[in-house]
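Structure (tokenized):
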């Protein structure tokens, strides 16, 4: 899978050193950086924000370790859920096409004052392996 232009030119979407050190100590199962992604908000309401539908593209990275799923939007954590966290079972994981890893969840799963649906899509050739690694295949 090709890396994003921002990654190739400027390194945008590279996993920062502190996150990389953390995931390496946990035992990396799957990892990809400099990948294209998007976040879609559906019927979303949060303090000071409201959107019936909004989609935002980004360059980021994703990692599955022996203890958690970590996905970064640019250098910021988008998904950081331990594998033994009960909220992980309330998230839906799937693969769109051959190369898009989709994570869908209710916005109030992580923020009690949010509502609506959040969808993260990560374009990675490791999408089927991520799904299998999470035991969702």
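Design, position by position:
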């Amino acid at each position: 899978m090709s890396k994003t232009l921002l990654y190739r030119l400027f390194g945008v979407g590279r996993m920062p050193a502190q996150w990389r050190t953390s995931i390496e100590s946990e035992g990396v199962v799957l990892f990809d950086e400099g990948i294209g992604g998007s976040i879609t908000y559906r019927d979303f309401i949060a303090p000071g924000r409201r959107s019936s539908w909004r989609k935002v593209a980004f360059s980021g990275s994703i990692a599955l370790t022996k203890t958690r799923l970590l996905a970064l939007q640019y250098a910021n954590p988008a998904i950081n859920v331990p594998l033994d966290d009960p909220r992980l079972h309330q998230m839906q994981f799937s693969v769109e096409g051959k190369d898009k890893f989709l994570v869908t969840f209710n916005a109030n799963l992580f923020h009690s004052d949010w509502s609506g649906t959040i969808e993260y899509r990560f374009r990675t050739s490791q999408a089927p392996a991520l799904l299998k690694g999470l035991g969702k295949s």
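Reviewer-requested clarification: The helical segments are 5-10, 17-26, 127-133. The longest helix spans residues 17-26.
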